């Protein structure tokens, strides 16, 4: 069976943005779907276009799927409805019309995601006007993993992780063709559970220069979730972030004796000091800060020779690091050969 799959939008025609960024997260999920489908002997084609305008983005993905003569088309997205929302909104799928094979795939996918994560099940909806659904020549499903602005949804997504979501989508596809998935179930992110047992296990990488509000969203219109005191140590999360004056983080909640759920903090240099553990070296002009660990990624910004930054992790030839961009910190991918760890 041939399956075409893509991540929705791109970094020039970006998708929804709330507590998480749709484009950044759907890139993680669709790659996990591909991995699990290949492990289960499906023939898979990645039809995710590079950075381009929205019309080109849609056409390239659909054309590649049609030329591949795929038996199924899957497009991964994250939804958004409000500026912010504290309650659950859930996971859902879209098809062009009900009554065909696409509905079977869509129903099994949304049911499997909901059952495996506790995300609210929004079911299968129809929209014959969506390009990815009406221009494909095979059964096509758009998967909306969760809502970017829903605190409940995002907390669940961050806890379960994109690898599990990708596994569950693949499991739903397998179920639709009467096949048992043979991939190993990914482990859920247990970092918070481990850290909640002992403050000594809570690893930090930044200091609040002044008292900071832990925010429920990256804006000036937010709900204050607690208190981060002056000189308190916090943890900036290892997530790509290009929101100018905000970064995702966690802090230690003394009253609960555990690490907080992910929150947002002001990332201006005047109020936050992020640790450094690496130096930029051997750069003649500028080292690009990228949205994804790929030479084809759009550029977020840059650093110069001898600048200091904090490296969260290194994967293959790229380092995910937090760096000072103008007045505030951001987190991006850099070519690792130009980064020297202390």
Automatic annotation (TrEMBL):
Superkingdom of the organism of origin: Bacteria
Gene Ontology cellular component terms for the protein in this record: outer membrane-bounded periplasmic space
GO biological process: peptidoglycan catabolic process
Cell division listed as a keyword: no
Coiled coil: none
Keyword Hydrolase recorded: yes
E.C. number(s) listed in UniProt: 3.5.1.28
Molecular-function GO terms, alphabetical: N-acetylmuramoyl-L-alanine amidase activity
Keywords: Hydrolase, Plasmid
UniProt organism field: Clostridium perfringens
Annotated MurNAc-LAA domain residues: 62-174
Pfam families: Amidase_3
Protein name: N-acetylmuramoyl-L-alanine amidase domain-containing protein
